[in-house]
């Protein structure tokens, strides 16, 4: 086992940052699920709202990518 | 971490290491490396695809010629619908970009090969080529009128300077996301396959589960390889359209 | 008939073959086809030749969402980089970093909205066809 204490801290921090990706997963699931339930209630309005669906998914996913970036930074850059 | 040859050894990033081809000690910018080799193979594959496919030039096309014509017609149709008829002048370079990315993605899927498009250095070069040439083209065609792209005349006057700053930044964000998207997609899929392969290595008899998963991911990767080439090309067309018709 | 005129050099040979076939089979156009000026006939023929929208693919939606997410992240990244660079040029000013990160976020949202508009327009075109 090589490495020092700050390395250990970086790796633990990277692991903690990955919790944010779970949050993004919850968010994406929430957006898609609500879209689907709305679309099943009123299928005729569904097609006009797909763009909004993708915007919602993108916003939720972006923050997951942020936490992933933070994890990468902690592991390789700092 | 683990001892040699036993335990979970996950090294998903080893496949992306650039190494000199002929065993030189250090890697300089002109050293022939595996990137050079696989880019060269890609160029040969593109040339072979078109040359062998259209060699007979039959009036009733055979299988190979049919496929070449399909790809040609697909990209041409894409340029025409997305960028407009006057963009057809630039169809050759767009077809070249599409074929280069498509074939380097597909060649990278061969086991033990090297994926050149998984390196941001490669994709950023492609994206910057598109970015710089499209910007120069816009200024050449419209002179300073090209700056209308950033000056949104539909917005109320006090908002326009703020929107202009945001538009300029969006313009500079585009090559960044253009290159990161391709490299990130290719790298993520290949690394995932390696992680599953490491699982297969330690499970012994139960290894068939990760192997089935690897087959599924491989099929997905095939799809991603084609779609990423398509997305890169269609975004190139979108940028070209902005340069040819800067007013919104 | 006008197709033959409009067929571009370098079109596919299969297209060429079909055009040849047409001209052989119908050497004389009908009277009704002759009505109208040559301009209007050219216009309708051009309309026929206009390329159709590319067929949708199930993976396209996921690709769009992915594209938007990366645009957003890249926007913030570029904004932060510009802010940091300018800040360290003028002596370190954290306010520049904050301001440009926010601007980068706005740029990302702007790009996202643009691709959403593009997608919506494409969808409308498809439903019209």
Give the topology.
The complex is a heterotrimer of chains A (78), B (248) and C (129).
Chain A: H1 5-17, H2 19-41, H3 43-46, H4 50-77
Chain B: H1 34-53, H2 63-83, H3 91-108, H4 120-142, H5 160-203, H6 208-244
Chain C: H1 2-6, H2 13-25, H3 31-34, H4 38-49, H5 58-89, H6 94-128
Helix pairs in contact in C: 5-6
What coarse outline of chain B follows from CA principal-axis ratios? globular
SSE string of chain B, helix = H, strand = E? HHHHHH
Question: What's the β-strand tally of chain B?
Answer: 0
Q: Mean pLDDT across all residues of chain A, rounded?
A: 88
Number of strands of chain A: 0
Gross morphology of chain A is: rod-shaped
Rounded to the nearest angstrom, the distance between the terminal CA atoms of chain B is 57 Å
Oligomer: heterotrimer
Strand content of chain A: under 5%
Major sheet attributes of chain B: none
Classify the secondary structure makeup of chain A into a structural class: mainly alpha
Mean pLDDT of chain B: 88
N to C succession of SSEs of chain A: HHHH
Percentage of residues assigned to helices of chain B: 55-70%
Amount of helix of chain A: over 70%
Largest sheet of chain A: none
What does this structure look like?
The complex is a heterotrimer of chains A (78), B (248) and C (129). Chain A is mainly α. Helices cover 87% and strands 0% of the residues of chain A. The longest helix of chain A is centred in the last third of the chain and has 28 residues, at 50-77. Chain A is rod-shaped, with a radius of gyration of 18 Å. The mean pLDDT of chain A is 88. With 248 residues, chain B is mainly α. Chain B contains 6 helices and no strands. With 129 residues, chain C is mainly α. Chain C has 2 domains: 2-49, no CATH class; 60-128. In chain C, helix 5 (58-89) runs antiparallel to helix 6. Chains in contact: A-C, B-C. At the A-C interface, helix 4 of A face helix 5 and helix 6 of C.
